[in-house]
Specification:
- The complex is a heterodimer.
- Chain A is mostly helical.
- Chain A is 79% helix and 0% strand.
- Chain A contains eight helices and no strands.
- By secondary structure, chain B is an all-alpha fold.
- In chain B, 76% of the residues lie in helices and 0% in strands.
- In chain B, α3 (43-59) packs antiparallel against α4 and α3 (43-59) crosses α7.
- The chains are: A mainly alpha, B mainly alpha.
- The interface between A and B is large, with 43 and 51 residues.
Chain lengths: 198, 195
């Protein structure tokens, strides 16, 4: 009864309309929180990180640690590059990674695990590199990038947990693959647009 | 199990959460909402998308998941053609015809091999994708827009699948076939301009 009530409250809170003001920087919030929200509000990052998380969750618990540790290391590397270098144009690489991981989720090919980890590593590096905060410097920049890293890991973990739950049911396994196809399709469309605009 | 149900229900409800205005141009949310409503506000799209899910459920496994995977991927290809300005002849006719053909497949209980179903669905997906893709360049946030319409397409498939699961019951089978017939008739109406 208590759990049902809590669930009901949670559901009500989810549907109550609310205004979310998001910007970088956001007045009233600190640098770390700005960084934490950054991957959520950059759609290319959000899509790739959710794809990476679904992919990790789809593989099963046995591979979770072997996937997440390289991803975290790669994210740290990408953010360090973002700290030291000016903005690099990696949008194409972000989209290509999104499409690839989406297809890997949808088609579930039989590939060596090490090969699959490479894509997760690339996702972490590209999102990290694309998180440059050129307008900031010093402690503020470090704090934002730290928050960014935490946000990236949180998103991947969230998607991985959702996929792990879904995996337990036959329909859930299908749902994961369908979401993978959606992600790949979205990425492919925007990639076509970026080619068309050149 | 209960926690899982709560989590899934919560996640599903989050899809109906109110719009969050983010960034100066509201491009992220505005793009997603425009994309989301693009297939939903076109009855020809709705009919065909529901028909794909319906036919998948009617054919059973593996079609029930193969078709909803094939469709968005091929649709993206069609969308890419639209984005790049590659002309595809008679797009609107193709969209209307998709409702007629797939609806008829369900109405007449045609159980084709999975590869045939995938080819038919894929062929029509090109037309749908092309129609969405031509709108993409003018979208405020193209990635959010494409996520929006892909997501809406998927939800329409799910609606069709949910209805199609009625085939488990004898009466449900007739209801599903009637649904397919209705979609085929609607498609015919779009084709002739009556609807």
């Amino acid at each position: 009864m208590i759990r049902f009530s809590l669930s009901l409250v949670a559901l009500i809170l989810l549907v109550i309309p609310r205004v979310t003001l998001a910007h970088t920087p956001v007045s009233g919030t600190d640098s770390f929180y700005n960084g934490l929200l950054h991957p959520v509000f950059v759609s290319a990052h959000l899509l790739l990180l959710l794809a990476a998380g679904l992919f990790v969750g789809q593989q099963g618990r046995a591979y979770n640690k072997e996937a997440l540790i390289p991803f975290i290391a790669a994210s740290a590397l990408g953010l360090m590059i973002a700290w030291f270098s000016p903005r690099l144009d990696v949008f194409f690489l972000l989209l290509a990674s999104t499409i690839t991981i989406g297809l890997l989720i949808a088609l579930k090919p039989k590939l060596a695990w090490q090969f699959k980890v490479v894509f997760l590593v690339m996702a972490g590096v590209f999102v990290g590199v694309d998180s440059t905060q050129e307008a900031l410097s010093g402690l503020a920049k470090i704090t934002v990038l730290l928050g960014n890293g935490v946000g990236m890991i949180a998103l991947v973990l969230f998607a991985a947990i959702v996929a792990s739950f879904l995996k337990k049911a036959a329909w859930g396994k299908v749902a994961i693959r369908v979401m993978g196809s959606w992600i790949a399709a979205s990425g492919l469309l925007v990639l076509a647009l970026s080619f068309a605009n050149q | 199990m209960k926690l899982f149900r709560t989590l899934v229900t919560g996640l599903l409800l989050m899809t109906f959460a109110s719009a969050a205005s983010a960034h100066e141009s509201a491009g992220l949310t505005g793009g997603f909402i425009s994309g989301f409503f693009h297939p939903i506000l076109g009855w020809d799209h709705v009919a065909a998308m529901v028909a794909v899910g319906l036919w998948g459920a009617f054919l059973g496994s593996p079609a029930i998941w193969v078709l909803p995977i094939v469709f968005p991927l091929v649709m993206a290809f069609g969308g890419a053609l639209g984005v790049m300005g590659v002309p595809v002849p008679a797009v609107e006719t193709g969209i209307a015809l998709s409702a007629v053909v797939i609806g008829a497949m369900v109405a007449f209980a045609i159980r084709s091999p999975i590869w045939v179903a995938a080819v038919i669905v894929g062929a029509f997906a090109i037309f749908h994708g092309h129609a969405h893709g031509t709108e993409l360049p003018s979208a405020a946030n193209p990635l959010s827009y494409s996520v929006g319409f892909v997501f809406a397409t998927g939800l329409l498939h799910i609606a069709g699948i949910a209805f199609g699961l009625l085939v488990r019951w004898p009466v449900g089978k007739y209801a599903v076939q009637a649904g397919g017939g209705f979609i085929a008739l609607a498609g015919f109406g779009f084709l002739t301009g009556v609807v």
